[in-house]
Fold this sequence. Notes:
The structure holds three protein chains of three kinds.
Chain A: H1 3-8, H2 15-22, H3 33-55, H4 58-85, E1 94-96, E2 101-103, H5 105-125, H6 153-160, H7 168-181, H8 188-206, H9 213-245, H10 250-258, H11 265-270, H12 274-292, H13 300-307, H14 310-335, H15 340-362, H16 368-388, H17 392-418, E3 419-421, E4 424-425, H18 435-438, H19 440-454, H20 460-474, H21 478-504, E5 513-514, H22 519-537, H23 540-548
Antiparallel strand pairs in A: 1-2, 3-4, 3-5
Chain B: H1 5-22, H2 28-52, E1 61-69, E2 74-80, H3 82-101, H4 118-138, H5 142-151, H6 153-162, H7 172-212, H8 219-227, H9 235-252, H10 261-268, H11 271-296, H12 298-324, H13 329-349, H14 353-384, H15 395-398, H16 400-413, H17 420-435, H18 437-462, H19 478-496, H20 499-515, H21 528-537
Antiparallel strand pairs in B: 1-2
Chain C: H1 5-28, H2 35-38, H3 60-83, H4 85-112
Helix pairs in contact in C: 3-4
Protein name (chain B): NADH-quinone oxidoreductase subunit M
EC number (chain B): 1.6.5.11
Transmembrane segments (chain B): 6-26, 33-53, 82-101, 121-137, 143-165, 186-207, 240-258, 270-291, 303-325, 332-351, 363-381, 401-424, 436-458, 478-497
Amino acid sequence: MSATAAAVHSLWTTRALADTAATPAIPTPHIEYAQLSPVLIVFGAAVLGVLIEAFAPRAARYAGQLAVSVVGLAAAFAALVALAADGYAQGRSHVAAMGAVAVDGPALFLQGTIVLIALVATFTFAERRLDPVAHGNRVDSFAAQGSAVPGGEQEQKAVRAGFTTTEVFPLLLFAVAGMMIFPAADDLLTLFVSLEVFSLPLYLLCALARRRRLMSQEASVKYFLLGAFSSAILLFGIALLYGYAGTVSYGGIADVVDGTAKLTPALANTTGNDALLLIGGAMVVMGLLFKVAAVPFHMWTPDVYQGAPTPVTGFMAAAVKVAAFGALLRLLYVVLPGMRWDWRPVMWGVAIVTMVVGAIIAVTQTDVKRLLAYSSIAHAGFLLTGVIAVSPSGVSSVLFYLVAYSFVTLGGFAVVTLVRDAGGEATHLSKWAGLGRRSPLLAAVFAVFLLSFAGIPLTAGFSGKFAVFKAAAQGGAVPLVVVGVISSAIAAFFYIRVIVMMFFQEPQPQGPTVAIPSPLTSTAIALGVAVTLVLGVAPQYFLDLAGKAGVFVR
Amino acid sequence: MSFPLLTVTAVVPAAGAVVTAAVPAARRTAAKWTALAFALATLVLAAVVTARFSPGGARYQLTESHAWITAFGVRYELGVDGIAVVLVLLTAVLVPFVMLAGWHDADPLETSDRRWRPTQGFFALILLVEAMVVIAFESTDVFLFYVFFEAMLIPMYFLIGGFGDQAGAHGEDEQARQRSYAAVKFLLYNLVGGLVMLAAVIGLYAVTAHQLGAGTFSLPQILHDRANGTLTLSTTAERWIFLGFFFAFAVKAPLWPLHTWLPNAMGESTAPVAVLITAVVDKVGTFAMLRYCLQLFPAASKWATPVILVLAVIGIIYGALLAVGQRDIKRLIAYASISHFGFIILGIFAMTSQGQSGATLYMVNHGVSTAALLLVAGFLISRRGSRRIADFGGVQKVAPLLAGTFLVGGLATLSLPGLGPFVSEFLVLVGTFTRYPALGVIATLGIVLAALYVLVLYQRTMTGPVKAGIEGMKDLKVRELVVVAPLIALLLFLGVYPKPVTDVINPAVKDTLSDVHRTDPPPKVTVPAVAAAKENAK
Amino acid sequence: MNAYAPILVLGGLGAGFAIFSVVMASLTGPKRYNRAKLDAYECGIEPTPQPAGGGRFPIKYYLTAMLFIVFDIEIVFLYPWAVTFDALGLFGLVEMLLFVLTVFVAYAYVWRRGGLEWD
């Protein structure tokens, strides 16, 4: 459009000009299907799962869903391994789908971790031997009919008819697909969309507990409201960052931050406006900190972890943390490294508060699931110390810690599903007294998980903690390491307290029984133990893997 | 590559732990014998290690070195110097006695529950502790040492909390509560110590990584690089890291005022477990002061010496005074141990060759003498079903053998000449006198107090009229004699002829002192004979 | 500090607007209450009273509304695609087919599970 025309007619323009301007020069977008195949496979499996729900007879759905989920996740993992073998695990990188999704070492590492977590979680989702047989049907941890009023007639009818909510499998797969994109998102819009894609199924899953349904629904509503709130903050932050940089792509924003971007007229007006950058960046980071459950954005965690069905809690605690820390790392290391003198002091504060508050409040907990929730908050703090390092070793240490933490968490929650009394899972700590006397093996396994959480040497938790603290110390954050060490000591106290209850107290007369799980849950627990010990004794291979993966593409 | 003797010495008890734990519930006796066999095998291996060690040779011998976690710069490095050899042997010697003494301590009261297997657990845990202690003595990599220094807390914790003494002054519930309190206190104190050390270990890594390009934990390499100037620690960094290390060792050792977990832990656990705590596990703390604090941070050690020495002397006197006032036999021995650990730390930080040789020798002697005294006390307590001193009296009339061995153990504790501890205590005091005469004088008070608490204990429990509940007391059984007799023989041997041990220790002590750049001060006191000779020469 | 001034201004403006609206409404608005006005506003359904003791919450309204929105949004995407069909070519066709297909999967689920039956 010529300048004179615009000056003369500000409200309309002539046809000839419009025609020339409208000649579309839209470049055909291209999608790298091969590089996106892991995510696409998971999405495909999820869609297939929905179709099974729609067309398969009720009796066949469980087996069908389980098969589709397992095959889908395994295929996705195979695709990831193929990509990694193609060189992406060692420095090769690409930004796929028109700059929306990064395919690089950290992305593949995190996606692989998430897929494996999901595979294990699928096993715990599919467990049907724990709850007593209801009206001749084996049932799992999920409500017979999610829409029925808790305790109502409709629900009883559904239970009698042997309904089960097999939709949990496609929901899980949708969430997994969202989580896979989340740490790989290379522009802010993809980040937001993937956040919603994995959050919405999780809100639903939280509400589907078979026992204590009101608590479960309360948890879900709480999670949804606070989650929506944090999404809104994130979105507002994205808008401000767009206003600052005139682009939502990570690389583009980073260029503007560094001052290396070409100044377009649009940029010229806003680029000096650091307020937009600071506020926008802070809001986006806040949205992510909510997902990783860092203090002061942690309020939802204990309620949601306690109310949600335990397999879902395990999955959430593990996978959401992996995805959100991945996204946080990419955001801070790719978009805002130029701002690190601004965000590092803030993150210092957040890390310190998170570690200390998580550890201290956990001391007073009397419910196993709430205890693990606060412990997950404290672990978020430990992970943040690695994030603050702003160095390759910081990235790789966080990646390693996430693997170590997530499988132990999955195993820990799987153990929680086994300890039951008449009301379902016996999560009150007093009921765990003397468990070591009744079933030494289970108690020993749980003790191993707790020791790993506490960071005792020769467990995965120690290797992870050492890695992040080492990275932090090398980055000059020695006081942070000291705080971390102190809060580890506090945290150790409550882990030890559970061990004391299990081993050194007399069992209660009406204590809980330990259900004999099917191979599904046993596999989840055994994997947890194996990861704990292997990463504790011989972590070298996985440290190498994380170390080679430690470079983000920009 | 030669035969990995040191690894095998640690692997054998670890494998024994696994095998013992796997013995079926009903075959308790088989589990015991299995465990004992593995403990004896470890003893044989430790003897081989000692035999293969040549005192005048290289500083670290029988070394093994493999990459472990290269990302952290951690190597699996083993090697023993004279001090480590002696302590490995001490550990291997004591564990079979611990097992024999605790032969029936973990028999389950009811055998109906098939999955509850306390006996297997008890013996497996003892072997596990032994394996971890041995590897902690043998490692020359700071990280490797740290890993086992921390990890040994867990089996120890289960031993204290899971297998308590049934002879407290209170009811059974109160007893269980006390025991779990003691176990948790033990664990938390040591865990906090260990975590502080973790921060220091990370600090050490950061410093080495910064200066050498790649972080390392290898003790020989760090010493080498410091000697040739490639690695220099700033004064502040050295002091902080030293404090981190020392704090952990001071908790473990235990040094006053970080000692309060020891009386609880020793009081509530069974006598064999108490021996394991004080004679074996705590030695890792004092050993680590010698090996890590002094060698890695010589300047900071010198800087901290005055404070540490004062704390050690306070510990000597405080422990002894509280021992005098105890009404519980095991707590009395625990406080006596605190006093003795004060002597050991005094000897280490006096930084004289006599002091450090004495301290190392003291570790051995204290291990043997405390084991003898505690195990006999354990036999005594289990016979009476109480550990209150007031419940005993006149035992020597009923069970003379028991009383006699108790007396020998007690006399060793008060450092009677002719028994092992005398030599070491003498050396420590001589070493202290040459540099810090005032502290030496105060520390000597500890010996006087030791005589007081030991003899009063003996007098109250063994002499006098036979009290109610003591009449039918049986004398030592064969198994118990097998436990006590060799320990007493060892005490006598070490008291009369400590040379074999000091020969092994002395070169290592000399190396350590040269790391700290200290030499023995020249004698300041003018010896009359020398003075007279000088006069004559004129 | 200057960099942070706008956030204060923004907060001030937001609070000011909220206070202004509420105050002005209460000062200037006519107040003629009736029952319907005092009810909490829920578009389309009676918010209270809820059927007590195990009654079902009628969600059909929401379901229909949601389905409408889904297909509405689908149209929103279809329209610009139709306009630029030439430029996008085969790629656009394939992508759009995938998009329509996934929406229809959800539709099939709702239909098969009885979501479209109004009783």
